[in-house]
Amino acid sequence: MAAGSAEGWAQRWSRGVPTWVHTSQGGFDRRRYEVVELAEAPAREYIQANHYLSGWPPAVHRFGLVDLEPAGGDDGQVVDGQLLVGVVVLGVPMSRRALTRVFPSLEPYTEALEMSRVCLSPSVASNGESFTVAGALRLAAGHGVRGVVTYADPVARLRTLPDGRTAGSPRGHLGVIYQALSATYTGRSTARTIVVLPDGQVLPARSIAKFVAGDRGADGFERRIAALGASPRPAGSDQRAWLRTALEQIGARRQRHPGTHRYALPVGRTRAERSRAVFGMPALPYPKWADARPRT
Length: 296
Fold this sequence. Notes:
Layout: E1 9-14, E2 17-22, E3 33-37, H1 40-50, E4 59-67, E5 78-79, E6 82-91, H2 97-100, E7 112-120, H3 128-141, E8 147-152, E9 157-160, E10 166-169, H4 176-180, E11 184-188, E12 192-196, E13 202-203, H5 205-213, H6 218-227, H7 239-250, E14 253-257, E15 261-266, H8 271-274
Parallel strand pairs: 7-8
Antiparallel strand pairs: 1-2, 3-4, 4-6, 5-6, 6-7, 8-15, 9-10, 11-15, 12-13, 12-14
Helix pairs in contact: 5-6
Pfam families: Mom (PF25680)
C-alpha cells in the first residue's frame, strides 16, 4: 500500500512498534491468506499486543487475516490452528452522529459502523491491507452492514514501552489504505482538545466520560491514572474533581488536535446492497503528504 507517496511504502505493527515494507520487496500473494470472522477474545488479544492504540474499542464485528502457509519458525498468535497476522475491527464510535452525518439513510450501530482498528503483522507483504479490509467488509455485508466510517489520525503518537523502546505512530496517518480502496473522503472531524498522558498515550474522551459518570470500568480507569503517580481517590469523593487534580499530579498535558481525516466506504455483496449507503456529506479531494517519506 503506498504510504502517502508514489514510493510504495506500507506500515506494519508488532508489539506497538511500527515497521515499513516496500512494494519492491515483493507483492502480496492472496492465495496464501484468508479473512475469517473472529471471536472477541483473540481479536482483543492481537490488538492489545500489537496496535499502537493498545486500548480495545467497543466492537460489533471482528475479522482476522490468517496465514495459510506460514514460513518455518514463524511464531505468534494462533487461532483454530492458523497463524493470525492481522485484525480488522468494526464497532461503535463515540457518538451516533458520527455515523448519521455520513450515512443518514442507514441505521447506526447495525447498518453503519466505524472501522476502528486495522492492524497487520510485519510478515504480511505490501498491499495486504486492501485484501484484508475488502475481505472483512464482504463478511460484514453478510451481517447487514451497508456503510463504514473510518478515520486516519495525522498527529504523531509516541509512547515509551516498559523496556525503553519507543512505540506508536511516529509520523501520523494520512489514510492512504482507504484511498486505495476508493473510499470517499469527507474532510476532517471536529478539532478538539485531547489529554496526553506522560507515557505518550492519549486518554480517550470516552473513558473520561464513563469514569465521571461512574459507568462500568471506572475502577480500572482510576487504577490506570493512579499507577502513573496520582494520589488515590478518597472514598466517596467527586470523580471529576479528583481527575482534574490527578491529571495535574501526573503531568498530563492538553493538546489541541486539528481533527482526523474521515473516510466512508459503502458495504455490500452486490451493487444494490452498496447503493443503500447514500452519503450525507460531499466528497472532497484526497489529502496528500507534502513529501515522499514513509507514511500511512
